[in-house]
Structures are given as C-alpha cells and as structure tokens.
Specification:
Blueprint (H helix, E strand, L loop, with lengths): L1 H17 L2 H9 L4 H6 L5 H5 L4 H6 L3 H7 L1 H21 L8 H28 L5 H26 L5 H11 L1 H9 L7
C-alpha cells in the first residue's frame, strides 16, 4: 500500500510545475513578456478552491469507472486520463501565436491536478489505518517531490535536446505511473 501511495504522490506532483514554473521557463525562452507570463498565475486558482468541488467528487460515482474500479480508483483513473491528455495538449501550444490557448490549457491542467489531489488524499486516508497516516503522508510527499523534480529540472534539462511538445508529451505519459498505481491499488472498503 505504501508503494502505491508513493506512486500516486509522484502523479500528484508531476503536473504542478508543468503549468507554472516549467511553463514560465518555456514561455520566457520563446520571448513572451514577463507581464503575460505572470498573468498565468491565475491558473493556480483551482488549487486554492478545490474544496468547492471536493464534496461532489467524494459523493458522486462515475458509472463505468466506478463499476470497474470502485469509487476512489474510478475517479482517480478518469481524472488521470484527462490530465495526461491536457498536459500533452498544453505542450502543443505555440507561444508565437499568442498565449490564450496555453493559458486555457494551464487552467485545465491545474483543475484536473487539483481534482487528482482530492482523490489521492481521500484514497490515502481511506486505505490506511490511523497509525499509518504519518508514514502515508511521508510517502505521498516523497513521491510528490520526485514528480516536481522530474517536471522541473528534468523537463528543463531535456529542453536543450527535444521540442517542448515532446517534453510535455513525455510528461503526460508519466501520468501513467499514477494510472498503474490506481489499477494495482486495492479499493478502500466503503464507508
């Protein structure tokens, strides 16, 4: 269970920098003004207000996904599929044509990432006993930091060798780590 939580933490940390720091670096290299780049910080709003839709995710069931994987894992997989697609779509943005598309996709990535965080946190709380919660939080943070490292330093290091669309495609494929974790994870007992 702790390995699954580590992998889910990785999937949770990966999208954060792709929509902010790494994206800012990419746009600055493409000559986008600092004013426009700083305006993209508005895309971080979903992380601050995710409590608004957390009850919906906690109570609602996705028909096909819940039937196949259970409520928590079903939500996790559905969100991760959309998250991977939106990260890849973000990478197809062209800063020379304006940043409206990129800003919209950064907002979608942030919304889906915040939603994934809701489900992963709920899963961790449901699956672990009280005495395991500290270790579970540590595993989540370790995975989260690894995700940040890959999406930050890893992506920027690759920028010298491959295009940004390929980098974002590669990062989108790494969301698959969280998908594998969701598939192999046990579904928590219904409360």
């Amino acid at each position: 269970r702790m390995l699954v939580i580590l992998l889910m933490g990785f999937s949770s940390g990966l999208p954060l920098l792709l929509g902010f720091s790494t994206l800012s670096y990419w746009l600055s290299k493409e000559g986008v003004s600092l004013t426009a780049i700083s305006g993209l910080l508005a895309a971080s709003v979903p992380y601050s207000v995710k409590f608004l839709w957390a009850p919906l995710i906690d109570q609602a069931r996705l028909p096909v996904f819940t039937a196949l994987f259970g409520k928590r894992r079903g939500w996790m997989l559905a969100i991760q599929m959309l998250l991977a697609a939106s990260i890849a779509a973000l990478g197809f943005g062209d800063p020379s044509e304006g940043i409206a598309y990129i800003a919209a996709m950064a907002l979608v990535v942030a919304f889906l990432s915040a939603s994934q965080d809701i489900v992963i946190d709920a899963y961790r709380i449901d699956i672990l006993d009280d005495y395991e919660q500290g270790a579970g939080a540590a595993m989540t943070q370790t995975g989260y930091r690894l995700g940040l490292l890959i999406a930050g330093a890893g992506a920027i290091a690759l920028a010298d060798f491959i295009s940004w669309s390929l980098i974002y495609g590669l990062m989108a494929s790494l969301v698959g780590i969280g998908m594998v974790a969701a598939v192999i994870a046990p579904e928590p007992a219904a409360s």
